[in-house]
Design goal:
The chain is an all-beta fold. It contains no helices and eleven strands.
Length: 114
């Protein structure tokens, strides 16, 4: 099983980016899909999560600016990030729970300049 994340990059404050993460390699029964991030010198933190039924939750710092969604047919999770701030700069990781296993993507860098 592999998680391939893409969509990171450099953007000015106030801009937008969209991340995607596709799970491949025979993964079945995906339950929860999540995005985490880790800034330099800080612990990895949960940004947003979405259940198999579509229920979502967000970190307080991104609520109202970020939107998580998923396409079950494509085993893909998305993160739409709007009104980006310099403090959103981090490596973003996707995490997928399926069949009692947890899988992590390789991370994609998001840099927001002021």
């Amino acid at each position: 099983v592999q998680l391939q994340a893409s969509g990171g990059g450099l953007v000015q404050a106030g801009g937008s980016l969209s991340l995607s993460c596709a799970a491949t390699g025979g993964i079945f029964s995906i339950n929860r899909m999540e995005w985490y991030r880790q800034a330099p010198g800080k612990q990895r933190e949960l940004v947003a999560g979405i259940s198999s039924g579509g229920s979502t939750n967000y970190a307080a710092s991104v609520k109202g600016r970020f939107t998580i969604s998923r396409d079950n047919a494509k085993n893909t999770v998305y993160l739409q990030m709007n009104s980006l701030k310099p403090e959103d700069t981090a490596v973003y990781y996707c995490r997928v729970s399926a069949s009692f296993n947890v899988y992590w993507g390789q991370g994609t860098q998001v840099t927001v300049s002021s």
